[in-house]
Specification:
- This protein has 13 helices and 23 strands.
- By secondary structure, it is an alpha/beta fold.
- It has three domains: about 1-120, no CATH class; about 150-450, Peptidase S8/S53 domain (Rossmann fold, 3-Layer(aba) Sandwich); about 460-545, Immunoglobulin-like, CATH 2.60.40.1930.
- The strands form six sheets. It has a seven-stranded parallel β-sheet with strand order 6-9-5-10-11-12-13, sandwiched between helices. Strands 1-2-4-3 form a four-stranded antiparallel β-sheet, with helices on one face. A four-stranded antiparallel β-sheet has the order 16-17-18-21, with no helix packed on it.
- β3 and β4 (about 95-100) form a beta hairpin.
- The protein is elongated and about 90 Å long.
Length: about 550
């Protein structure tokens, strides 16, 4: 045994300051290099899937050293010591271990008890096995022009997501990794029968228990998945019900320790290796059961938290990382949590059905002054599936982030030539307060039809009519420019609706100079509105937004 200890210390050079206890009897350790890994960047097919390689090539991303798995020789040496292996992070060159052997702990001094395991390859993670399961609500029954969303329609229409759907963009060909706390009964609940029958759940893994079953754990991820991929026509249609999914568990709801950051990093690396395009995570970390592990607001700078570093590295691999902002907006800690502080992640806050900020949604900025959250979506009374299989409602940024993830999948399907950061930029730029962001909902509520160039602030018709609204966003007054060659003597009917379809304004106006003005709008709440204009029995519709 003494000889083996000497071998380990010769090949594993570990800086004491890079060692951390991250849970009771669990430790994270950083290696200084990847010598003897058994892999090389010249042969990425040995550790990355074809889809992961293609994603990098499509976005001109080089394969570099942090893509290489952690050194197998180092891991085998640790195993030979009798150390118990948990997870690894190739991106940050770490291993996590578990041990209660105080003698071994004392012998290793600053290293602590090291449990390390080689990252499982795509082939080692079990895919979901189908057993004659037949869908009763196939998405193919819903046509692009006649979609029965039920109550879930509001959270889709708020973002003009229905325009993407009507144009045939349902997320086909896009892979979304959902990293969460568990996916209770996804294999039997009705919202997911289409996913099951069409083999859209491509892989599952539990990085907490290190097994290949996630359907017996917490129900939080199940609810999140229903918002993205659910399909019960007339009740619940998800934002991207034809996307493919990886269901990965990283969160242990029975405790709160930093090891869950390591679990998340391992899950994100698996998602990358398996070829995910988007990661959705409705998890966030600031305070732990061990108070010495707590983060401060100063740590929310995009460069401190282990999970934030992993999320930003995932983005550097061409993955769109979508993160919930957190639910501490009306608590003593009102700020975003990690990894929502990442500079390359799309952080999502919560609004209600009227596109107004809800008080629980965590606020920005990041501690280094960046706009956070980036955007917002419906996180109050969000339509989802509950544990009984019934369509229900839930509150939290956990439920606003998956709306954005799903619609981002549809957008990327519509514009496959874009990189992940170009998709992120389009989402931000389409948002209703892009010119005047704040630290509550960032750039505001995205308009995915606008992001996809399917619509904009100009309403056009084949009959030669077109209408432009300005300024957009507006404050007290809204002007409508009518590009009409000839006016009749009939009045022009102008209506204003909120996003729930409630009429707020209805007047008959006349004009001869192509401009209509709607004033006295300062009493309207900040948010998104629909202007409907009827001229000669022809109706035009424009989406506008109001600032303070």
């Amino acid at each position: 045994m003494l000889k083996l200890f000497r071998l380990v210390f010769l090949v594993i050079i570990i800086s004491p300051q890079l060692f951390a206890q991250i849970a009771p009897n669990k430790y994270r350790i950083y290696f200084t290099d990847k010598n003897y890994s058994g892999f090389s960047i010249e042969h990425p097919e040995e550790f990355l899937s074809e889809k992961a390689i293609n994603r990098r090539e499509r976005q001109n991303i080089q394969i570099i050293e942090n893509d290489l798995p952690v050194s197998k020789f180092y891991i085998d040496s640790l195993k030979a010591l009798g150390l118990n292996i948990l997870n690894t992070s190739k991106w940050q060159n770490t291993v996590t271990i578990y041990s209660t052997n105080q003698i071994l702990l004392d012998t290793l001094h600053h290293i602590g008890f090291i449990k390390s395991i080689q990252k499982k390859s795509t082939e080692e993670i079990s895919s979901l096995v189908q057993t004659n399961y037949k869908s009763t609500h196939s998405i193919s029954e819903v046509t692009n022009s006649n979609i029965d969303y039920g109550d879930s329609g509001n959270q889709i229409r708020l973002h003009n997501g229905h325009i993407l759907h009507q144009n045939g963009f349902w997320g086909q060909g896009i892979t979304i990794a959902v990293i969460d706390a568990g996916f209770y009964n996804v294999d039997i609940l009705p919202a997911f029968d289409s996913l099951l029958e069409n083999n859209q759940i491509q892989a599952i893994y539990d990085f907490v228990d290190n097994d290949d079953f996630v359907f017996d754990a917490n129900n939080h991820g199940m609810k999140v998945l229903s918002i993205i991929g659910g399909n019960i026509p007339g009740q619940l249609i998800g934002a991207a019900p034809k996307a493919n999914f990886l269901l990965l568990r990283s969160e242990d709801v029975n405790s709160e320790y930093s090891i869950e950051e390591d679990n998340w990093a391992a899950a994100a690396e698996f998602a990358d290796s398996a070829g995910a395009d988007i990661i959705n995570t409705s998890l966030g970390y600031t305070v732990f059961d061990d108070l010495s592990l707590n983060y401060s607001y100063r740590d929310m700078n995009g460069n401190t938290a282990f999970i934030t570093k992993a999320a930003d590295i995932a983005a550097s691999k061409g993955i769109l990382v979508v993160v919930s902002a957190g639910n501490q907006g009306n608590a003593t800690w009102r700020y975003i949590s990690a990894p929502a502080d990442g500079d390359s992640v799309l952080t999502v806050g919560a609004v209600n059905a009227f596109a107004s900020y809800v008080e629980f949604s965590s606020q920005g900025p990041s501690s280094d002054g960046r706009i956070k959250p980036n955007v917002a979506a419906t996180g109050y009374q969000t339509i989802l599936q509950d544990v009984s299989g019934q369509v229900s409602k839930g509150n939290g940024t956990s439920f606003s982030a998956p709306i954005i993830s799903g619609l981002a999948a549809c957008l990327w399907q519509a514009m496959p030539e874009l990189t992940n950061m170009e998709i992120l930029d389009r989402i931000e730029q389409s948002s209703h307060q892009y010119s005047n962001p704040d630290y509550k909902i960032g750039y505001g509520v995205p308009d995915f039809a606008k992001a996809a160039n399917l619509t904009n602030a100009i309403s056009k018709r084949n009959d030669g009519y077109s209408i432009k609204a300005y300024p957009n966003p507006f404050t007290q007054q809204l002007s409508l420019y009518l590009n009409i060659s000839k006016f009749s003597n009939s009045p022009i009917i102008v209506e204003l609706y909120n996003v729930l379809g409630q009429q707020l304004y209805n007047k008959e106006l006349f004009t001869t100079n192509n401009i209509l003005i709607i004033d006295n709008l300062d009493n309207l709440s900040k948010g998104i509105y629909i202007v409907k204009i009827t001229i000669d029995n022809k109706t035009h519709q424009i989406k506008v937004s109001k600032l303070n």
